[in-house]
Amino acid sequence: MEEELSETGNHLSMDSSGTGKHFDSGELDIAEPVGWFGGWLNFRWCSTSMSILRAAEKRILSYVKTPYRGRYINVGVVGYGGKEECKVWTLSMNETSEKTPLVLLHGLGSGVALWALNLDGLANSRPVYAFDLPGFGRSSRPNFSNNAMEAEREIVDSIEEWRREVNLERFALLGHSMGGFLASSYAIRFPDRVSHLILADPWGFPERPSDAGSKYPIPVWVKMIAYLLQPLNPLWGIRIAGPMGPKLIEKARPDLIKKFSSLTDDGDAEIANYIFHCNAQNPT
């Protein structure tokens, strides 16, 4: 189901030349209970919101020349004990082409705007779909299971439900980093839907060796730190950095910032700002 989730509804925004080309169906207002400290951290220290993230995304996508459509796709209830329906923020380009569509799955801590360097080339001759995975970017933040295998199944199920709602029968699937891991998992479960599987620097873990404990002993102090950090979300460092988050990202990932320097007028600030607001939202 395609959802309109803003007061303004569908509207046509203008590019720098004044010609309308990018369609956007508003923003998703996520107001999830995160406790008094989490709420204070998110809204006072981090100073972020879906509106700010939306603006950061639009600044980057304004450099994309190919017309695109942005909308929310309702994939139903996702995650452990979930009650709220999950809305997946989706970009689509060149939808009228009859060639096999290409679906893009981003990596950990990323979002659709970080495909900006690739979208024009990929959508030149075929339909392209990119979406923020549930729990990331402008999509809903469902409560996934604490069990890794179950959480993986829940995310893959949401991808399949997204496919049904977008009405794609068969497509090429490209996943980067964590998206490569999820793309592989999806292709294993739904092989008839995937015409080609493309893995770009895919993420994954080998099985734990049976003798790992004796062969690779872990110091007690490392175990203590790991125990203390266990309850924290992997991206907690960005949120705790608050207004210094974008600068922290610039220092931690200069390679990523440099990659986009040719795309934007102020690549350092725009890309770091987008990544920060993608990850400063309420964690799932």
Write a structural description:
The protein is built from 11 helices and 9 strands. It has helices spanning 35-45, 50-61, 116-122, 148-166, 178-189, 212-215, 220-229, 236-240, 245-252, 254-259, 267-279, and strands spanning 2-3, 11-14, 20-24, 68-77, 85-93, 102-105, 128-131, 171-176, 194-200. The radius of gyration is 19 Å and the shape is globular. The chain starts with a strand and ends in a 5-residue tail after the last helix.
Write the layout of secondary structure elements.
Layout: E1 2-3, E2 11-14, E3 20-24, H1 35-45, H2 50-61, E4 68-77, E5 85-93, E6 102-105, H3 116-122, E7 128-131, H4 148-166, E8 171-176, H5 178-189, E9 194-200, H6 212-215, H7 220-229, H8 236-240, H9 245-252, H10 254-259, H11 267-279
Parallel strand pairs: 3-4, 6-7, 6-8, 8-9
Antiparallel strand pairs: 1-4, 2-3, 4-5, 5-7
